[in-house]
Amino acid sequence: EVYGVNSANNLYRMKLDHCEDDDSLISSGRKTEQNSVGWNGISSRAVDSNTNGDYKRGSCTHSKTNSNNWWRVYFEEVYAVKKVVIHNRQDCCQNRINGAMVYVGAVYCGTVAYKAGQTIYSIECNGIVG
User: Fold this and answer.
1) Residue 66 contacts by C-beta under 8 Å, 6 or more apart in sequence?
2) What values do phi and psi take at 31, rounded to 5?
3) Computed from CA positions of residues 111, 104, 125, 94, in that sequence, does the dihedral angle turn out positive or negative?
4) Distances from the Cα of 96 to the Cαs of 69, 75, 79, 110, in angstroms?
């Protein structure tokens, strides 16, 4: 989930989740891509609005490799991104999220620090435009 506002036209955000605050969900249903796909874990699962962390339920992505993985979402407009929220896989392998870095364009927002039992990670981007 990526939250923010369209910096070119603030009214556009109302179309995304029918909300007029600065916490509009802007990632749902967007075009996505990742460096590899394993076990049918396609990148679009990350923006399907389903936050179920059980891989068998079809909402988690999965890469084919164990290192240097990346995932991205594309926007047709320029946005000021407030935060990125990651719902981690829950059926196994939760620690794999550790060290995941979040960027808006080429600007670094933060890194996920795995904590046992934590299911949701929020990385603040403080309105970085990208």
Assistant:
1) none
2) -70, 135
3) negative
4) 11, 26, 29, 16
The answer to whether residue 10 scores a pLDDT higher than 70 is no
- According to the per-residue pLDDT averaged within each range, which of 4-8, 12-16, 67-71, 113-117 is highest? 113-117
From first CA to last CA, the distance across the chain in angstroms is 15
Q: Say if residues 101 and 68 touch (Cβ distance below 8 Å).
A: no
pTM of the full structure: 0.82
Q: How far is CA 30 from CA 8, 93, 111, in A?
A: 18, 26, 23
Higher pLDDT, 10 or 69: 69
Tell the burial category of 7 from Cβ atoms under 10 Å away from its Cβ (0-12, 13-18, 19+).
Answer: middle
Task: Output Rg (C-alpha) for the chain, integer angstroms.
Answer: 15
Nearest to 124 by CA among 114, 115, 105, 111: 111
Classify residue 25 by its DSSP letter: B
Reported as type and span, the H/E element at residue 85 is: strand 79-87
The answer to whether 3 and 24 have CB atoms below 8 angstroms apart is yes
Residue 43 near residue 37 (C-beta atoms within 8 A)? yes
